[in-house]
Amino acid sequence: MTNLITPHGGKLKNLYLSAEDTLNEKLKAKEYKSWDLTHRQICDVELLLCGGFSPLEGFLAEKDYHSVLTSNRLSNNILWTMPITLDVSEEFANSIKANEHIALRDEEGVLVATMQVSDIWTPDKATEAKLVFGADDKKHPAVAYLHDTAGTVYLGGKLKGIEPPSHYDYNELRNTPQELRDQFSKSGWKRIVAFQTRNPMHRAHQELTFRAAQQAEANLLIHPVVGMTKPGDIDHYSRVRCYQHILDQYPSQTTKLSLLPLAMRMAGPREAVWHAIIRKNYGCTHFIVGRDHAGPGKNSQDEDFYGPYDAQDLVKKFEDELGIEMVPFQMMVFVEDKAEYHPITDIKEGEKTLNISGTEFRRRLQEGLDIPEWFSYPKVVAELRKTHPPKHQQGFTIFFTGLSGSGKSTIANALLVKFLEQGKRRVTLLDGDLVRKNLSSELGFSKEHRNLNIERIGYVASEITKNGGIAICAPIAPYAATRRKVREMIKPVGGFLEIHIATSLETCEQRDRKGLYAKAREGIIKEFTGISDPYETPENPELVIKTEECSPDEAAQRIILKLEKLGFIR
Ligand code: PPS
């Protein structure tokens, strides 16, 4: 175990057992009940075990939890602003007793740590949301997580580390606090200013960090979060390639890049103090806090959750206690006449400034529009364009829904050949009948089985979409909630168009190509959509097609025009 000074005068924790103790604990753990850690918990465990979360030695006990919520301190009065809790299901919590040991395993079942459960309690999540995030408002991603994803019961207890969670990406850029401290000392770095980020870095960030390092007379640590960031953020693989390009923009030997497997909470001021403690643990002496640090965006009243400089104020309040110096920074803007970046507060009257917001930047990427060189480096932009192609190069899903015999398959086939004719993207047709023969051959038509069928189709379509292809789905998909689920699955990875083939039941029954309606009326086929099972009409589909009024070819043309309008084909 190492004995380096960290904030609060404590020691840098290292919760890993010695080789011999690890073997013994592994044997004992065979008898322990196992908890499969969620992605966020794996991030927390990794930082607990390596000392990134020093002085914590495990998941918070109940009295520490309440103390952190109400006073930003552990029950022993040490500054700690974020509740690091192990949330589990009620079922799992009921299966264990206080003081029992449990095995914590990663997604593959590998034993990462064991924990002696000292506390088991049911938190009041609304109160936690208000105290930690400032509002019980699900527009805040961590509040939504708290209510919708986190388990209902919390377990507290000390951890014994068995092995670090495994990573297969960018291993050379991942460092424990001890490793970074050793590297700093080997390089003769005494003063180190850390830059926290969850976004790609552009010129303004380079300028800000360079100035911060100059100002603090310190070396620079670019310390981006690669655990969990705000939903919708640019993936860390693309970001890391961007950071690697940006390293060339600093004088050699002055700057280092290291990845932090932190699961962010977007808690603004509290998060900024937490980030500062973590950076202190990693051996930094200074920490940059900019505008709206770890801000979660707008609340349900369309107002910011926190003021733009609330985070700086809270870090300032605790600065002496933290033992890491804040380097506060104002927003940097480009001054056109000087062709230089300056803090917004230094801008003189009449000076023309330029800025591109994050939202505008993403829009330009989406539309494949110009991103000027004053804003970013060509290599960074090229990297982002590769993984975030404009809409006309992204994949998409056409999701037909409608009664049996409504004409979904006919239109889907007409559309399929049009895409094949265009030859721009790979295309797959997931027709209801075909899926039932292959993917869902064991399923029937109960609500549960229909939902499972649609979720499977959604999963396959999302994979196709993610990889730049076209998925045409043509199931009945009678339930609105499941259709919504599929939309939510696909939207983040490409385009999604729900198309209601709104042929009336009368027409479908008159056509009765497969003779199924007659059988359904006679009761030979049970749970038949429209006859003995419900069909929930889509409320906001991208397109409604009435086959009584247009031919399959006309329908396919309408879809093509809609795709053109939305920018998916050009
Ligand atoms: S669902 O609800 O979306 O899972 O249904 P889906 O997989 O699209 O249904 C595919 C075809 O199954 C035939 N079929 C039935 N449909 C509805 N209800 C019942 N009970 C039923 N039993 C069999 C029907 O022909 C569906 O094909 P389409 O292509 O829609 O006519």
Describe this structure in words.
This protein has 570 residues and is of the alpha/beta class. The protein folds into three domains: 2-161, Sulfate adenylyltransferase; 173-387, HUPs (Rossmann fold, 3-Layer(aba) Sandwich), CATH 3.40.50; 391-566, P-loop containing nucleotide triphosphate hydrolases (Rossmann fold), CATH 3.40.50.300. It has helices spanning 19-29, 39-50, 62-71, 90-94, 125-133, 141-148, 177-186, 203-216, 236-246, 268-281, 310-322, 358-367, 378-387, 408-422, 432-437, 447-466, 480-490, 505-511, 516-522, 552-566; strands at 33-36, 58-59, 86-88, 101-105, 111-121, 153-161, 192-197, 219-224, 255-257, 286-289, 325-328, 332-335, 340-343, 353-354, 396-401, 427-431, 470-474, 495-501, 543-545. The strands form four sheets. Strands 1, 2, 3, 4, 5 and 6 form a six-stranded mixed β-sheet that branches. Helix 5 runs antiparallel to helix 6, helix 14 packs across helix 20 and helix 16 runs parallel beside helix 17 (480-490). The model is unreliable at 1-5 (pLDDT under 50). 3'-phosphate-adenosine-5'-phosphate sulfate (PPS) binds at residues 404-405, 409, 432-433, 436, 445, 450, 453-454, 475-478, 514, 516, 525, 527-529, 533.
